[in-house]
Amino acid sequence: MIHLRSIMGKLTFIAAFCFFVLFSNQSFSQDGKALFSQNCASCHAINKDLTGPALAGVEDRWPDKKMLYSWIKNNQAVIKSGYPYAVDLYNKWNKTQMNLFTSLPDKDIDAILGYIKVEGSKPAVDPNKPVPGGVVAEEGDNTLLFGILTLILAIVAFVLLQVNANLKKLADDKEGIPATEPVPVWRNKVYIMFATLVLFTIGGYYTVMGAIGLGRSQDYQPEQPIFYSHKVHAGTNQISCLYCHGGAQESKHANIPSVNVCMNCHMAINEYKGEALYTAEGEEVNGTNEIKKLYKYAGYEEGKPWDATKAKPVEWVKIHSLPDHVYFNHSQHVAVGKVQCQTCHGEITKMNEVYQFADLSMGWCINCHRETKVQFADNGFYSIYEKYHEDMKNGTMDSVTVANIGGTECQKCHY
C-alpha cells in the first residue's frame, strides 16, 4: 500500500507539473501579446510596415541583441552613441523618434520578442480581404491544444495508476499476501484532493480573468447605421481627424460630427467610386447606397435645395466608453500632450469598420503615463515645473515623463 501511494504521488506530481508548464507557456504567450498591444502596436505590426517597420525577424536584423534591448529602452541614446545599424534605421524612417521604454524590464522585452517570433513565422493575412463563406481568418489560439494535451496526460496518469494497482495485486497474490479491498475512485482521498486542486486552479484562473475583464470591450466592433469607412475618409482622402472630431483639440470630448458636417462634402459627392468595401464578416458593401442612407438622415433630396431643419441625428453606436468614475480629457492629451490619435485608437486610417483597439484599462493608461515623454519645449502649459526645466538644462534629466509630473497619482483621473 505504501508503494502504491508513492507511485501515485509521483504520477500526480508529474501530471500537475506538466499541466502547470503548459499553462504557464500559454500565459507567457498571452503576456507577450498583451505587452505588444500596450507598447508596440500603435506604431508597429508584425508583417507589415506602419509608422515604424514590420517587426517580424527583428532579432535577426540586429547584429547585437544587447543593442536591440538598449534601442527598445532608449533609442535616442543608441543613436547618439553612433551605432551604425541604429543610425541607418533612424534615417531610413525619416528620423521618426520612437517612444522611450526605459522602465520596461528585460523579461517583458523577452515576452514581446517571443510573441513577435511566433507570429512572424505565420503567413501574413490581410484582414480586409474576404474569404470563402464570409468568414475572416482569425489569429491562431493554442488554448484548445494545450487543454487536450493536459487531458491526455491526466488520462495516461490515471491508466498508469490502475496498471500499478493490478500489478501490485498480482504480486501480492503470488506471495500469498491477503488482498485488501480497493478503495473506489470516488472515495479515494488522493483522487479527490487532486481533482479539487485542479478545479480550484482552473476555476480561480477564469474567475480572476473574468473579473479583470469586467467592463472592458477590447475589439468591440458594433454594426453602425451607416457603413462609414475611416480608411476611405481619413486614409485615402487624407481628411484630418479634427475636421470631424474638432472637440478632441478643444474640449474633454472628441464629439461625433453632426449631419451637416457630413453634408459639407456629400452635397457634391453622391456616388462612391473607390476600391471595394467589405464588412468585418467579408460581405461587400455598396458605398453609394450608404451615401443614400446619409441623405435620408439629412432629409435631403437630390436636385432640390437642402432644408437642414428636416435633418435628424445619425444614431451611431458608441464604441469607446470609460467608467463614470474615470476622468479623461481629449484636449489635454491631443493639444498639450501631443498624443497622436493612433496611440489609443490604433491604425484608424486603415479601418473600414472601427473597433476598440486598446483595452483602455487602468494598467494600460498608467503604463502609457510611465513611458510617454512630456514635450517641454515651447509648451507654456509646463512652465510651472521650474525644477524639471533646470534639470533638463543641467543634463541631470534627459526627459520628463507624464508620471514625473503626477500622471500616476490617483486624483488625476479619479476625484
From TrEMBL:
Gene3D superfamilies: Cytochrome c-like domain, Cytochrome C3. Residues 27-120 form the Cytochrome c domain. Keywords: Electron transport, Heme, Iron, Membrane, Metal-binding, Transmembrane, Transmembrane helix, Transport. The chain crosses the membrane at residues 144-161, 190-214. InterPro entries: Cyt_c-like_dom, Cyt_c-like_dom_sf, Cyt_c_III_dom, Multihaem_cyt_sf. PROSITE patterns: CYTC. The keyword RNA-binding does not apply. One of its GO terms (molecular function) is electron transfer activity. This is C-type cytochrome. It comes from Limnovirga soli. The lineage of its organism: Bacteria, Pseudomonadati, Bacteroidota, Chitinophagia, Chitinophagales.
